[in-house]
Amino acid sequence: MKALKVLQLLPALDSGGVERGTLEIARALVTAGHESVVLSKGGRMVEQLQHEGSRHLARDLGRKSPATFLQYRALRRLFEAERFDIVHARSRLPAWVAWLAWRGMPAGARPHFVTTVHGMHSVSRYSAIMCAGERVIAVSDTVRDYIRTHYPPSRWPHLADERITVIPRGIDPAEFPRDYQPSDEWLVRFHAEFPQIAGRKVLTLPGRLTRLKGHHDFISLVARLVGEGLDVAGLIVGGEDPKRPGYAKEILERVQAEGLGERIVFTGHRSDVREIYAVSDCVLSLSSTPESFGRTVLEPLAMGRPVVGYAHGGVAEILGELFPQGAVGKGDVGGAAARVADVLQARTPVVAHNTRFLLERMQAQTLAVYGVLA
Length: 374
What we know:
16% strand; 374 residues; Rossmann fold; alpha/beta
């Protein structure tokens, strides 16, 4: 493959799966000898991006205002000056501005246009821009099926199947190693911070405190297991949603009302989630809406930790590959509790080794898409 110059566009570089994926592809480009450029309004991940050899262009294409669309002229001038081989849009509003800039260029002078559909957005003309790429990357089979269902070639003639490439997200086995054990120092600190878990089987529900993540189902599950005589503790790992502080208060009050104040603890946002997975006897995924992928399911499974979850969306794909025994129907709290009990009493097989959802594979497949176009 010839040396490429690739621009990735997204609203900001603060945190999140889209941002993490952007940095992972930027790193792979630099390692392979290509030129990597990222355009966003900035954020705390910019320093890492630049340290790893990419260039950052500061421009706010994520602000939801009609004025944002008017930046397409300036973006077209940027495309003409920089002569990118690939422009890769990862979010709707930046994709619209990039597409408006791109379509006004002479066909022979345009960069190739790639999009990644990271989530299952509301179906609309606005969301359809994520399917406008010359190549459209879907982060899971679930997302590909969503595209096929809601943007069929009969209505969107350009979106034939050969334009859609499924590239599942992946993790680095060195970051989440199989059978990882935390240090003694970490264990002492963690048990001092959360003494409620000492001597108990630990169940963990990761994810920000939003209604979609299934915290009420988790509380019901823990209550059911305690009622059945199992000595369990529940960890709710994730920060509050600043837009909905009332929800955090709601679930805290529910825990107290159920008499589970010594059984369920809220850790808040943590940077040591790997260690928390390692001390968990079972991790839960109880989202009420299907996830486009399900990274917080893959990470513990890659470490060999069992996961019990509602089998829909990307979570169903990951469980089906690595731990089908953990799959239960959406909303089936009783079924989930029974599967957790099986896990705690060692009545389920071990978790399969992760050989599909790998960071290196995701990076190679993405660069291959660039190479086919350029």
